[in-house]
Design a protein that fits this description.
Elements (H helix, E strand, L loop, with lengths): L8 E7 L3 H14 L9 H4 L15 H4 L8 E7 L5 H8 L4 H6 L1 H5 L4 E2 L21 H19 L1 E8 L16 H9 L7 H11 L4 E3 L9 H10 L2 E4 L6 H14 L3 E11 L2 H5 L3 H19 L5 H4 L3 E8 L8 E9 L5 E9 L2 H21 L4 E2 L22 H15 L10 H4 L4
Parallel strand pairs: 1-2, 1-4, 2-3, 4-5, 5-6, 6-11, 7-8
Antiparallel strand pairs: 7-9, 9-10
Helix pairs in contact: 1-15, 7-8, 7-9, 8-10, 9-10, 11-13
């Protein structure tokens, strides 16, 4: 496969200059200045096995595929508040004062552009730093002008856009999303089924920029956007960063299923006090997140295939806004399982995590891998990046893979395929070659 070299600057465009994006930018600065290792980043720290086990070829992924260099990244953002990256990070209270001050010059340099924002889609937020336009198409054109200015100012050779904004109210795909022609007509008519995130996605794709959806919003997961991505030859990926509780679910559930242990119920509740928690305090925004968080278990357990084990599984998800906790989210899981002869057992999990600390390396990996896919000419849905998402996008008529370990195998085998290496199936070719 021909992959263009990662020459020149890579623009990272981020709708939403909040806790996740500022933690990501500060972390990249810390890595480049040797204040930390890229902890949590598969692209930077993980190795990839090549060939037979006897060959002992296990390079780091970053040394195997031609990823962009971190020092070539330049950052741009939009936000409904005018605070620069440093002020926003100080507000978010994720980073220690020491880490915040060390990254101050880099963070201060990120001054957000005015956001496309409509409060009817995110009812718990409001801010003064927003664009005005008679139609949604005008707003999209203003975003494209922002992108053009960013390119000229920073002399970028290519860009990636990654949504780190808030969860919007629940919207189902409708007629306006069914084709690009209908969608563009909807932009001109201010169709209420087109939320702000879709306007960003449209502007990115029309500008030839790959788009990554870090929220459960529909954004690019509709036929009109698939059509546009195909027409423009750009990569799309999403949706909803897999970080805390759902990450643990996609680790634990495959293990239970692998051992054919039954599950009666899985009760999940979260408390968090950041902006995300405040937004999710609105029932319609929560529904969007709930659909994303609940889908994984249904697909992993396959209740129609294993009715004796999972057909009666009761799955409940709760998210509670609790301001004192800030970005330090706590997720509780109670799992009622049963085993041999139907005897009941329980698993209790209490995950005291940091939302943005888990999300930041996911943002880094997705930016680097999506840029790689774009340079390799891999347009459309990047299903191989499902590893990073709660609700992975897939082609029509396919079901998404949620098992974290199958997702990782697919990711690494895609990288091997890109570099003309054999996929690893763990079939044990060494035995057939005479090795035991």
């Amino acid at each position: 496969m021909k992959i263009d070299s990662p020459n020149g600057k890579l623009g990272v465009l981020i709708p939403g200059l909040g806790a996740v994006s500022t933690t990501f930018i500060a972390g990249v600065d810390a890595i480049m200045n040797n204040r930390t290792a890229p902890l949590g980043s598969v692209s930077q720290m993980a190795t990839i096995r090549l060939g037979k086990r006897t060959e002992d070829r296990n390079p780091k992924i970053k040394d195997f595929v031609p990823l962009a260099n971190l020092e070539d990244m330049v950052f741009g953002a939009w936000d409904l508040f005018p605070d620069n990256g440093y002020e926003s990070a100080a507000n978010a209270q994720v980073l220690s004062s020491e880490d915040l001050e060390a990254a101050k010059p880099t963070l201060e340099a990120v001054k957000p552009m005015k956001a496309v924002f409509d409060r009817q889609y995110v009812k718990k937020l409001d801010g003064p730093h927003v664009k005005k336009g008679a139609t949604k198409m005008e707003l999209a054109e203003q975003l494209m002008e922002d992108i053009s200015r960013f390119r000229k100012l920073n002399q970028t050779s290519r860009e990636v856009m990654i949504w780190a904004g808030s969860t919007e109210i629940y919207i189902e795909a409708g007629d306006v999303h069914s084709s690009l022609k209908k969608f563009e007509a909807g932009l001109r008519k201010n169709d209420p089924q087109i939320p702000s995130s879709m306007i960003y996605a449209y502007a990115a794709l029309k500008s030839g920029i790959p788009y990554i959806n870090g929220s459960p919003n529909l954004s690019v997961d509709v036929p009109a956007m698939h059509e546009l991505a195909d027409e423009m030859g750009v990569a799309i990926a999403g949706k909803d960063f897999k970080t805390g509780q759902t990450l643990l679910k996609t680790i634990l559930a495959p293990g239970l299923k692998a051992r054919m242990l039954g599950v009666d119920g899985w009760f999940s509740t979260n408390i968090l006090g950041n902006r995300d928690g405040e937004v999710l305090d609105d029932p319609m925004s929560f529904k969007t997140k709930e659909v994303s968080k609940k889908g994984a278990l249904d697909y992993i357990f396959q209740p129609k295939v294993y009715p004796e084990l999972y057909k009666d599984l009761y799955h409940k998800v709760r998210i509670n806004y609790y301001p004192p906790r800030g970005d330090a989210k706590e997720g509780w899981d109670n799992i009622d399982i049963f085993g041999w002869m139907g005897y009941k057992m329980q698993i209790k999990v209490d995950f005291l995590c940091r939302d943005s600390i888990l999300a930041a390396p996911v943002v880094l990996d997705l930016v680097l891998f999506t840029d790689l896919a774009q340079r390799a000419g891999m347009k459309g849905i990047q299903e191989w990046l499902s590893f990073y998402f709660k609700s992975p996008m897939v082609a029509p008529k396919l079901y998404p893979e949620h098992d974290l370990f199958i997702q990782l195998t697919k990711l690494k085998n895609t990288l091997r395929w890109m570099m003309d290496e054999e996929p690893i199936t763990h079939l044990g070719h060494e035995y057939y070659d005479g090795y035991q």
